[in-house]
Amino acid sequence: MFSNIGIPGLILILTLALIIFGPKKLPEIGRAFGQTLKEFKKSTRELTDDVMKDVEEEKQKLTK
Length: 64
Fold this sequence. Notes:
Elements: H1 6-63
């Protein structure tokens, strides 16, 4: 997704974010984004675990 941006594009995006949100608000936004990403990963992992558990249970039922 971000492989085509490159270093100059990333610097431009960070500079624009700093200008738009300001130096006081930027850490709060980063923290909120990090928490959101953490929760998304956790939910995805739990969903994957549930699906794998169901698949294993179905395999055991079929082998009996």
